[in-house]
Amino acid sequence: MNHEIAFPYPYLINTLDQYYGLKSRSSRKTISKENSKRRSSSRKNSKKKFSILIATFWSFPHVGGLSNYISTLSKGLKSQGHKVDIISPNQFSMSKVKQFREVATPNLKHFFTKRYGSYNDRILNHQRLIYVYEKMLETINLEKYDILHAQDLFTANILGRFNEFYNKPLFYTPHGMFTSNRLKFNIIKKSSVEEAYFTELESKAIEYASHIIVLSDSFREPLIKLGAKNRNITTVITGIDYPVNQREGKEKDSQKLVITCVARLGPRKGHNYLFDALARLKKYTSNVEVLIVGDGQMREKLEKQKKALGLSMVNFLGSRDDVPSLLNKTDIFVLPTINDSLPISIIEAMHSGTAVISTNCGGIPELIKHNKTGIIVEPGDPKQLAHALKFLITNKEVRNKMSTTAKNHAKNHLTVDSMVGKIKHLYTDFWEMN
User: Fold this and answer.
1) In this predicted structure, what is the pLDDT of residue 62?
2) Claim to verify: residue 197 and residue 255 sit in the same structural domain
3) Residue 210 near residue 170 (C-beta atoms within 8 A)
């Protein structure tokens, strides 16, 4: 692909033309595996050791679920003898990135202004990022990989275009529904050009993918609305490699009941609702300690809320690298999130043998079986959250039973071996069909 001039993909131009009411001068191409320039011969070898490219549009390594997922998948595949490379934009030369950025920005401004009379800053900046990442990926020899696995819609678009030539099995794992989440939190506006632009990228990622691997069934309906077929989606719940020595019983330093929340201190994690719930329970929390693990933009605001509500039992621990140790001293784990996919922190809490309270968001109900492995409440409802906390604080027998059930479920279903085995099986199926 020759991209000496930064230029939006033809299907994005179509979408923008339609939005602005122009008669499109480019045609949308439907992907056809039969018409690709290169075909691989039929192969049958279920024990083959694969060469796999895992690629993401976001920084890696980084703090958060996406980075943890990539690390876990890579480690698990390597332990089975497969070769795995991980590629992300921050791994490339900054001087080269700067050169490409300097080319892209004026080219894109000129294109958008000439065609539409103006440009949208967010789309311009995003197109520049796509252009730079694609130029970087052009330096990678994709021929050497048996499997391509994109971890976001943008990488799926870039690799999908390359793959029209290579015809490799291309897997796509969305870690969130990009456009709908940004609409929900008013980052982009309904019926805006940004909604049209990002929706097209999500639809095209689906079209380019040989198969979509999702973290939970909650992804199915929104993906199907964007054009995915249910038969082309497989749910593989994330597993983790939890320290075995942390699963041999709780180690209590004090007689206090410990409630822990492990999450980035961001507006979507719902810490404010947890604090509102705790304020309703002061007669039940005299012997309770609450540990807030994590850091982020909301810390100062949350510390002020803690002071205003008189929550002396709440302690901010900041970012920690000893979460399994903290969970081993925890009686109740709470994640009051108002928007999530499949939080690793819940899986860690279940492995540790801790009763969990969380919300009806994303794939969380697929992890927590209500009143069996934990309690599910509605997001943004401090009254309901307070009721669940009171129930587990005052019912030690139920709390312990939930803890044991959660631990057994995690040990049987939420391990790296389980996750990697299912994904490797999909890789094998599609490699043999290719």
Assistant:
1) 85
2) no
3) yes
